């Protein structure tokens, strides 16, 4: 009878690598759990799994912070899959992890959770911040262009000074995941049919899908293509852009921290007509809100989705 590590090496690791893109991260997580349950798989009991879950939920992960139920549930879900596969191969007859998760659902309930949506007024401030940044860079273009530490800054006649504003606007209008947008190629942008092709190789769902483009996204991408001509849509989109998007969100989505964009609180701007986001997205309820977690990477683990931004 194998241990968790032994089962990964002999069977489950091969299955994960063949079926999911996040196999290395999942295997690393499972090996950590293998240290918490060092015995053979048939000796791991429901009581052991439950005691481990209690200990994890009480573990401190920072100042005045403990492990959230979602993190514990994510680890148990990975372990449950391993045990389920062991049952299919007749190594064991019961899944103690599944029993713990099914019988103790309240243990992993986060209640209503946190508000992860970008309100319309927050979007207005974010857009205003992008405009302020563009104007500032155009004013100081000569100084920035001579600084070797700065990324590419386009000339004064270009539609955008750099990649940040078009990247954010495309993300807001399409809902592309971070990895999908970073690997997007111009042949995937179909202006005639007004849609973007997300290739199977870059899609988290491991299948090709098509994302419709609204008028704003089409206009932005056409202007951006005229500047970049060929190659990837976001040729220099990386960690610096992610950090900048996070800064813009933290500073300008919070009214108390945005003196440069107080114009957003004026009635004329607060009540201006906005193109509904459901013109680009299939779910109508996204018209008035955008996932905050998809604009700013607030969670430290690399699997966090930034669906609606960088």
TrEMBL record:
Domain Tyr recombinase residues, every copy: 125-310
PROSITE patterns hit by this protein: TYR_RECOMBINASE
Coiled coil start-end: none
GO MF term (any one): DNA binding
GO annotation terms (biological process): DNA integration; DNA recombination
Highest taxon, organism lineage: Bacteria
Identification of the protein by name: Tyrosine-type recombinase/integrase
Species, as recorded: Paraburkholderia polaris
């Amino acid at each position: 009878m194998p241990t968790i590590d032994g089962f990964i090496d002999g069977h489950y690791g091969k299955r994960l690598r063949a079926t999911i893109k996040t196999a290395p991260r999942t295997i690393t997580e499972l090996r950590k759990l293998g240290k918490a349950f060092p015995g053979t798989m048939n000796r791991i009991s429901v009581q052991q799994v439950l005691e481990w879950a209690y200990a994890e939920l009480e573990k401190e992960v920072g100042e005045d912070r403990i492990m959230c139920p979602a993190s514990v549930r994510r680890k148990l879900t990975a372990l449950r899959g391993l045990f389920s596969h062991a049952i299919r191969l007749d190594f064991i007859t019961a899944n103690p992890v599944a029993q713990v998760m099914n019988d103790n659902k309240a243990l992993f309930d986060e209640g209503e959770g946190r508000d992860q949506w970008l309100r319309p007024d927050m979007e207005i401030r974010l857009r205003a911040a992008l405009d302020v940044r563009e104007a500032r860079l155009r004013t100081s273009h000569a100084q920035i262009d001579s600084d070797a530490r700065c990324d590419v800054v386009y000339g004064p006649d270009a539609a955008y000074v750099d990649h940040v504003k078009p990247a954010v606007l495309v993300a807001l209008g399409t809902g592309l995941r971070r990895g999908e947008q970073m690997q997007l190629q111009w042949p995937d942008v179909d202006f005639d049919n007004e849609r973007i092709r997300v290739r199977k190789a870059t899609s988290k769902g491991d299948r090709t899908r098509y994302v419709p483009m609204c008028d704003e996204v089409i206009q932005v991408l056409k202007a951006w293509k005229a500047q970049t001509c060929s190659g990837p849509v976001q040729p220099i989109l990386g960690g610096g852009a992610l950090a900048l998007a996070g800064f813009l969100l933290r500073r300008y989505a919070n009214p108390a921290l945005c003196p440069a964009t107080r114009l957003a609180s004026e009635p004329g701007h607060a009540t201006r007509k906005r193109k509904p986001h459901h013109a680009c997205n299939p779910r109508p309820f996204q018209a008035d809100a955008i996932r905050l977690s998809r604009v700013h990477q607030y969670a430290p683990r690399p699997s966090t989705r930034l669906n609606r931004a960088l």
